[in-house]
Specification:
GO terms for molecular function: ATP binding. This is DNA repair protein RecN. One of its GO terms (cellular component) is bacterial nucleoid. May be involved in recombinational repair of damaged DNA. Keywords: ATP-binding, DNA damage, DNA repair, Nucleotide-binding. It is a single chain. The chain is α/β, with parallel strands linked by helices and 556 residues long. Among the domains are: 203 residues, Rossmann fold (3-Layer(aba) Sandwich), CATH 3.40.50.300; 137 residues. Helices cover 55% and strands 19% of the residues. It is built from 19 helices and 15 strands. The strands form three sheets. The protein has a six-stranded antiparallel sheet with strand order 2-1-4-5-6-7, covered by helices on one side. Helix 16 links the parallel strand 12 and strand 13. The two termini are 25 Å apart.
């Protein structure tokens, strides 16, 4: 629950710190004193929208923090632990707004996103404003409220997700079944290209191998002639060759006397040169023997290269780009056409998704039917006590022509205010007072089932007075008996029901207006209840009446 709130330089509040308790806390004050300031500040701590106008005039920033005891709420503790934001059994939400309109958010004194602040706040506080009935005019809000009351939020989310998945499959199937002429032409072109590239069937590295082989086959005759000539120079020529010359040189040098070390070295080098020359001549002869002209193979290679070059020019790519082009064409063709097997598979997936969706939506309809009867009965009981004893409240499930993301039906709140009148949609009820009372009855009922620890009612009793106001106060007190309720009110009958009572007032200090909040003890509370009953001038009668009201509450 909310244990304290600290507000600094917000609106007309200079500095405010409040320690808060469980039960029902009434907040009252004169018109314009700023009764709703605490609610507005708390709303910002929960991630509400803001602007520079909330910063107190002349100050640089507004600073608001709210401290919650979450020891009895393990779901909130787990949420904080998952984000490394835990702080024993406390959750401190803080918002700082600069005079330029920029804001910073913190959870347990650690910076966080505004989305995280909103999500954390959604676990902790639920604010019911005085204009709540305006949102209840919308069918979407009514559907959401019924689903929350029936604890169907997870199921409605499941139906919505399954609906979106099914629609995606259905649209994909429709597109595949209704291809345009342009798409057919594209598929036809791709099919032709795929067949042509498949027939060519160029392999990785084949182009380089063919070009090297072509160069080799084209130069066999020249290679044979040059190998023959080289071998002749080394050994085979009758007119003189390297080997015979080296042999003669060795003979002449061997006959020199006396022999010296230099001469021996020279002879050794010539003998080695003779050996190398003979081996080289032998290798050339062997190489020459391996060279065999093959005109047929050369023609085949040149034709293959011609086919590759022609196909590359046709597709406006380099020859080495034909292989990646084939892969691209095959992939696009598969994506566009797929074939009958993929179409049948898609049909099966769509049918399976639809069956799952209809199963979940049927279950949602069943649970909504159960929840709407209970909610309608409880709301009707509440509005009977709010000065509408003959009103009948219904929740109509209007079947849709086809399934939607929200299920098989639309929800509509219906009301028959007086006997003999037909029920009509709540949005068509003309009386603002009736709308306020019906809205309050709905809020009180849904608050009873709320798992949120702190509930705030901001002047939801507008348009209500007399005995009805006392019923409203009792309703809010009963909710407070099981948790924590804050109620901003201008009615004595409601304020008297509070377990605690705060009074908001304003004063001028140093030519500046300042709003302050004080907790009322018994005497001051009696005076505040009397003021709410009879105005500024307090009389013995109004004070006695106030004491009686407070005494009656104690006896309940």
């Amino acid at each position: 629950m909310l244990t304290s709130i600290a507000i600094s330089n917000f609106a007309i509040v200079e500095s405010l710190e409040l320690e808060l308790k469980s039960g029902m806390t009434a907040i009252s004050g004169e018109t314009g004193a700023g009764k709703s300031i605490m609610v507005d500040a708390l709303s910002l701590c929960l991630g509400g929208r803001t602007d520079a106008g909330v910063v107190r005039h002349g100050e640089k920033k507004a600073d608001i923090s709210a401290t919650f005891d979450i020891s009895a709420y393990p779901a909130v503790q787990s949420w904080l632990e998952e984000r490394d934001l835990e702080n024993d059994h406390l959750c401190i939400l803080r918002r700082v707004i600069s005079k330029e309109g920029r804001s910073k958010a913190y959870i347990n004194n650690r910076p966080c996103t505004l989305a995280d602040l909103k999500e954390a706040g959604s676990f902790l506080v639920d604010i019911h404003g005085q204009h709540e009935h305006q949102s209840l005019m919308k069918r979407s809000a009514q559907r959401q409220q019924l689903d929350e009351y029936g604890q169907l939020t997870d199921l409605t989310r499941q139906v919505r997700e399954e609906y979106n998945s099914w629609r995606k499959l259905k649209d994909e199937l429709h597109a595949k079944q209704n291809r345009s002429a342009e798409l057919d032409a594209r598929i036809q072109l791709l099919s032709y290209q795929a067949d042509e590239l498949a027939q060519l069937d160029l392999k990785v590295g084949e182009l380089e191998e063919l070009e090297n082989e072509q160069a080799f086959l084209s130069n066999i005759a020249d290679a044979q002639f040059k190998a023959y000539a080289s071998a002749g120079i080394l050994r085979d020529s009758d007119e003189g060759n390297v080997c015979s010359s080296l042999h003669k040189a060795i003979q002449q040098a061997s006959a020199i006397h006396p022999a010296t070390k230099e001469l021996d070295n020279a002879l050794e080098m010539m003998r080695q040169a003779l050996i190398q020359a003979e081996e080289a001549a032998t290798s050339l002869s062997h190489y020459q023997d391996t060279l065999e002209q093959d005109p047929g193979r050369l023609q085949d290679v040149e034709q293959r290269l011609s086919d590759i070059y022609d196909t590359a020019r046709k597709h406006k790519v380099l020859p080495e780009g034909l292989i990646p082009l084939r892969e691209t064409v095959d992939q696009e063709l598969e994506a566009l056409s797929g074939g009958e097997e993929s179409l049948e598979a898609l049909k099966l997936k769509e049918e399976t998704a639809y069956q799952q969706l209809t199963s979940s939506a049927t279950l949602l309809t069943e649970k909504r039917t159960q929840a709407k009867e209970e909610l309608a009965q409880r709301v009707e009981e509440q509005i009977h006590g709010l000065g509408m004893p003959y009103a009948r409240f219904y929740i109509h499930c209007d079947p849709l022509d086809q399934i939607s993301a929200h299920g098989y039906e639309e929800i509509e709140y219906m009301i028959a205010s007086n006997p003999g009148q037909p029920a009509q949609p709540l949005r068509k009820v003309a009386s603002g007072g009736e709308l306020s009372r019906i809205s309050l009855g709905i809020q009180v009922v849904t608050a009873h089932t709320s798992v949120i620890p702190t509930l705030v009612f901001d002047e939801v009793d507008v348009g209500i007075s007399g005995g009805t106001a006392e019923v409203v106060g009792r309703m809010l007190r009963s909710v407070g008996n099981r948790g924590q309720v804050f109620c901003v009110t201008h009615l004595a009958q409601v304020a008297a029901q509070g377990h605690q009572h705060f009074r908001v007032s304003k004063e001028v200090f140093n030519e500046a207006t300042v709003s302050k909040v004080e907790s009322l003890a018994e005497t001051n509370r009696t005076q505040e209840i009397a003021r709410l009953l009879g105005g500024i001038e307090l009389t013995e009668q109004t004070l006695a009446h106030a004491q009686e009201m407070l005494g009656n509450v104690q006896l309940q």
